[in-house]
Automatic annotation (TrEMBL):
InterPro entries: Ig-like_dom, Ig-like_dom_sf, Ig-like_fold, Ig_sub, Ig_V-set, Immunoglobulin_dom. It holds the Pfam family ig. Residues 262-275 have a biased composition (Polar residues). This is T-cell surface glycoprotein CD4-2. Residues 1-18 form the signal peptide. It comes from Paralichthys olivaceus. Keywords: Immunoglobulin domain, Membrane, Signal, Transmembrane, Transmembrane helix. The chain crosses the membrane at residues 221-245. Residues 27-109, 119-183 form the Ig-like domain. The keyword Transmembrane helix applies. Gene3D superfamilies: Immunoglobulins (2.60.40.10), transmembrane domain of human cd4 (1.20.5.900).
Length: 302
């Protein structure tokens, strides 16, 4: 009897012990049921909500996360695209025996970015969903120094802050951590201008940027005069070309009108038919030839 009671306490302790699993948002995570086979029923639950349940040979029932969860042949639960609200307690029940898992969704980040500059203010953020209040979160720097009291660390950045920071929490005597790599750069310093080079530049080119000529005075007036005269000549040439083109067009139009008037005053040529006259019809029968009137007249004598 004592053996049976002790065995029951062992089963209760095993079922009450929860495995802690860390993951990040938008990642996939696999939860092991703890058993490979079952006889009658198998079920997965998130807190009190049903995820997957099958009894005997019946068709499985699905509840929450049905679009992002699946159960493998080894009874493990796979969740894809993890969200913050997925954190918390998961329970796998196989033939009445429960196996619990605590899913923690951890988000670590640096503000304004993971590349900080020396002397600027940087904020390290560690957000853990699914963690109870009695489990504080602490940061550990690259030098091994701990920063407790707040999941956010605000400080002035130095070169010693470059490296891997760890956001950790202790659960059941086990330390769980999430890493964050920080890069620290020194601000770019612009060197002051060299005085010697400035003096050399001024002496070598005293008139640079002043718009003056080598003579020391302003731009010569005759250059402006030449430029203005050139513009006037170009304008006059354009006007002359336009006038000549118009006169040529007018002359062409007058010549065309005269040509058309001469053609209209000329005689009209009508179509004349030059075909030969039709041959006279031959008369039927013989007709005696009549003597020619010329033959009957007597010849005139000189």
């Amino acid at each position: 009897m004592n053996v049976i009671v002790l065995f029951g306490f062992v089963l209760g302790a095993l079922s009450a012990a929860a495995t802690v699993i860390l993951t990040k948002p938008r990642q996939s995570v696999t939860l092991d049921c703890g058993v490979r086979t079952y006889k009658n029923s198998l079920g997965w639950y998130h807190k009190d909500a049903l995820i997957y349940e099958i009894e005997g040979n019946f068709v499985p029932r699905k509840g929450v996360m049905k679009d992002r969860s699946s159960v493998r042949h080894d009874n493990s639960l796979v969740i894809s695209a993890v969200r913050n609200e997925d954190s918390g307690m998961f329970t796998c029940k196989a033939d009445g025996v429960s196996h619990k898992h605590t899913l923690l969704v951890v988000s670590v980040s640096a503000s304004p970015s993971e590349e900080l500059q020396v002397g600027s203010n940087g904020t390290l953020q560690c957000e853990v969903k699914g963690l109870e209040l009695d489990h504080p979160v602490e940061w550990k720097g690259p030098d091994g120094r701990k920063h407790t009291g707040s999941p956010n660390v605000l400080k002035t950045v130095t070169l010693s802050d470059a490296g891997t920071w760890q956001c950790g929490m202790s659960i059941g005597g086990v330390m769980y951590t999430e890493d964050l790599k920080i890069k620290v750069e020194e601000p770019a310093v612009t060197p002051p201008p060299d005085q010697d080079s400035k003096v050399n530049t001024e002496t070598s080119c005293p008139n640079c940027g002043t718009g003056t000529t080598g003579g020391g005075g302003q731009l010569d007036w005759w250059m402006w005069a030449v430029a203005g005269a050139g513009c006037v000549v170009v304008v006059l040439l354009m006007v002359l070309v336009i006038i000549l083109c118009r006169r040529i067009r007018r002359r062409k139009r007058k010549l065309q009108k005269k040509k058309n008037g001469r053609q209209s005053q000329g005689p009209k040529n009508y179509c004349q038919c030059n075909s030969r006259p039709a041959a006279a019809k031959a008369q039927r029968g013989r007709q005696k030839g009549r003597p020619s009137t010329l033959a009957l007249k007597p010849l005139l004598k000189e």
